[in-house]
Protein 1
Amino acid sequence: MTSLDDSELNELVFDKDGVRLTVEDAVATVTLTNPAKRNAQSPALWRALTEAGRSLPGSVRIVVLRGEGQSFSAGLDRQAFTPEGFDGEPSFLDMARGSEADLDVLIAEYQEAFTWWRRSDLVSIAAVQGHAIGAGFQLALACDLRIVADDVQFAMRETSLGLVPDLTGTHPLVSLVGYARALEICATGRFVHAEEAERIGLANIAVPAAELDGAVRDLSAALLAAPRSAVIETKALLQGVSGRSYEEQRAAERAAQGRRLRDLAGLGD
C-alpha cells in the first residue's frame, strides 16, 4: 500500500510517532507511517493512536485505519525485547520487577490505543494488507470491520513468546470466530490468510491488494448513506447482544425504535 496522495489529504490533524490522522468531511483516516519497520508498534505509537481518537472532530462518522507499505503492522517493535527497551519507557524487565498495581496501570494505558475504535458514534474499518501480527492483529481486531488484501497474514504470536495477547484482542477474536478456533489461533501462533479470514468471519471481505482502497471507499460510502442516528442506535443494539438475554434484547429493540420514531416525528428530546 502507498500513502495517500495530496488530493486526498484534506485536513492534516497531526503526524507524529508513526501515526498520521487526516480528516475529509465525515471520514477520518488513521495511517501507520513507518513502512521501513513494517509499522512495528511502540508505546509512543500507542499514545499517538490514543490522541487520534481524542482529536476526532464531531463530524466524523467513519474512521479508516491503514498502514503504509507492504505490511499493515508486523506487531511490537523488537526493541521492546531488548534489556534497555525503548528510550524513556519501562523495559519488560522493569515491568516484571514492578508491582502488580503499577503493571496493571501501565498496560491499561497501552490498551487505550485499542479501545476507542468501537465507540458507538463511529464505525471503524481496518484496511489490512500483508503482515498483521501480534499487536498488529489486535489493532485490526479493535476495529468494527476489516477489509483485507489477498496477501494478508494474521497471526497472534504472543503465546509463542511466553506472553498473552493483552491489547484487547481476545474479546473480539472469540466473538468473531468462537472460543475453540480463537484458542487454536492464539496457542499455535499460526498464520491466517485471506481466504480463511473471510470464511471464518475475521474479515468482512477479501479483495486483491490493488482493490483494497476502492473497497474501503465503497464500504465507507454505503455506511454514510444511512442516517447517522440510526447507525448509532443499531450499533449500540448489536454491541449489547452478548450481555443481554433474548427478552432483554427484545426490550432494547423496542426502546431504540421508540427513540427513532420520536426523533423522526420531531418529538425527540
Protein 2
Amino acid sequence: MTLHCVVLDDYQGAALTLADWSPLADRVEVRTLRENITDRDKLVAELARCEIVVIMRERTPFDAALLRRLPRLRLLVTTGMRNASIDLATAAAQGVTVCGTASSSTPPVELTWALLLGLARRITTENRALREGGRWQTTVGQDLHGRTLGLLGLGKIGTRVARVATAFGMEVLAWSENLTAGRAAETGTQLADSKEDLLRRSDFVSVHLVLSDRTRGLLGEPELRAMRPHAYLVNTSRAAIVDRAALLRALREGWIAGAGLDVFETEPLPVGDPLRGLPNVLATPHLGYVTERNYRTFYTEAVEDITAFLAGTPVRRLTGA
C-alpha cells in the first residue's frame, strides 16, 4: 500500500531537490506545499489522506485540535530536535510518532552578524541610495571596535556570537538567569550584574534565549527604556521574548536607535504591519536557519526518519520527556 506524505511550508521549493527521496519511491508518495496555510479547514483537507507529514520548524503548529482532526496521521517529522508548537502528549495518545532532525547553530550566528553589521553601517539605506541614483554618502556608521555587545543568553548560539564580537575588538557582556561568572569567563565574556546592567551598558543587545514562561516578555517598556538611545536591539531568537507594543513605541519614539529582527509573533508578517515600514528596522523573514547546508540536513534526515519508521525502528524521536 502506498502511503501519502506532505512536506509543509516549503517556501523555496527546496525540499525535493536538497535531499534524495528515492529510497521512499516505491512506498511513499511525496508532495510539497509551498504556501503557508493558516485556514485550519483548508489545512485539514490538504492533510486528510496523509499518514506522514514533514513540517519546517514551527511554521505550522500541530496542536491538539489539529492532531485530532487527522486520524490517518502516523508519523510527524519536524526539522530540528525541538518544536514547541507540537502537542506531543496528544500525538502520543493518538499513536502518532514524532521525529526530528539535526540542526546547525551556525546559520543563526551568521545572520545575527548580518543584521548587526547592517544596522551599524546603515547598509540598506546606503545601498538603496546608490541603486536609485541618490546622494553619495548620507549616513555615518557606528564602529564596532571598542563598543560593547550585550548578549541575553550564552548557549551554543550566544557563545559563537561572542567569539565573533571578540574578533571585532568588542567588549562582551552576557546575562541570563542561570549564567555564572565562571561560565561567562570560559567564553571570554563578562557576566553583567543584572539584566538591567547589561542593557544600560551595551551599545548593541542581541537576544539568544529559548522562549519559555520565564523569558516571554522579558524585554518590556522598562527594559527598552533602560537601553542607550544610540543602542540597537537584534532578535534572531523568538519574537515573544520582546514585548511587541513596547518595541514599537521604542522604535517610533527613539528610546533606541533601531532593531534588527528576524522573528515575529505572526509569520509570515502581515502586509501592512508597522514593522515592515519603520525606517530604523532592518528585518528579514525568519532566515536564521535558512541555509543550503541546514536544509540538506533537515530533509536528508527527514527521509531517514521516514525510512526508519517504515522499518519499525523510529529514530530521533521527540517524546516530551
Protein 3
Amino acid sequence: MTSMGKTRRTMSVGLIGAALALTLAAPARAGETPTAAAGWQLTPTGTDARFRGLAPVDGRTAWAAGSKGTVLRTTDGGRSWRNVSPAGAGDLEFRDVEAFDARRAVVLAIGEGEASRVLRTEDGGATWTESFRNTDARAFYDCMTFFDHRHGLALSDPVDGKYRILSTRDGGRSWEVLPSAGMPDALPGEAGFAASGQCLVSAGPRDVWLATGGGAAARVLHSADRGLTWTATETPVPAGYPARGVFGLAFRDRTHGIAVGGDYRKDQPSPRAGAVSTDGGRTWLPSATPPPAYRSGVAWLPHSRTAALAVGPTGTDLTTDGGRTWRTVDTGSYDTVDCTPDGSCWASGEKGRIARLATEDRGTRGLGG
C-alpha cells in the first residue's frame, strides 16, 4: 500500500488501547467483534460486492474497490458510503485502489488482456478517465502502489519469463512499461496474487517489494530504484502449487517487513503462513507462531514498531512483536486491511463487508473519527 504522507510520531493512546484490547480479547463468532470495547465495527455499504481493494486516507475518508466494477467512497468515517463506480464498468473486476485524498483516486481492474485497466478520478468519483488499457494478451495485472502523489507502479504476472512493471510519474494520468533488463527470471508457474492489493507495496520514496507464489518457492522481490532493478529472495512461506505463496506484504519502513499468505483453498491447511524481515527483504524468517490459516492482507498499526494486523476469510490476527507471533482476535471474513497516519484502521472483504477498528472511548466512530 501507499506510504504517502506517513510521519513518525508516538502511537496514539486510543490505538494502544485498541491493540491491548484486541490482544486480550477472546475470539468472537464470525462477524462479531472480540469485545464491546474494541474490534471491527461493520459499516453499512448497501452492496454485496467483494472488496479486495481498500484505500483509507484518514479517519473520515476511505475508498474501496471490488467486484462488478464497484467503487465506494466515504467521507464521514464509514457512517455512509457513496457508490462512485465508473460508468459502464460492471464487467470489470477491481482489485486495488490507491487514494490521495477525498477527490483523487486510482483503481486497477485485473484480468487477461484488455480486462486489465487503470482508471483515475479527480472529482471524488463523479467522473473517471481510463489512463491505461492492457493490449498484450500475455499480461495480467494484479496490484499497484504509489510512492507519493505522482510516482507509482503496477505489477503484471510474468511476460516472456519476467514480471512486467508499469510506471507512472504523473499520479496515474499516464503509464509506461519499464524495461525488463533489471528483473530476475520468474520461476516456472510463478505469479502474483490479486487478493488484497498488497502483492506490490512501497515504503519511502524509492523502495518497493513484490510478493509471489505458485512456483517452487514463494519469493519476495525488492527494488530500491522504483522498479528498474530487482533482487529476489525466497521466503519460508510454502509454495509449490498455484494456490500457495505470499499474498500480502507490509513494510513499516524500508527495513522491517511482514509477509502473510498460505493456501487459499478452503479445504487446505496453511502452515508457516507468516514471515518477517528486518533487513529490507534480503532475508526472511518464519513466524514462530504464524497465523493459523490463510491470510491475504496485513498492515502495521500506525506509528507502532511492533503491532500489526493480518486478515483473511477466516479471521483477523494481531501481532505485538513485529510478526514473530500471532493471535486470532476476530473470526469475521476480510480480504484486506490498511491503517492511516491519524490512527484509523479499516478492513474489507466479501459480501460488501467494510469495517473500522473501534475502541470503547470512541465507540463506533473508531480510531481517528
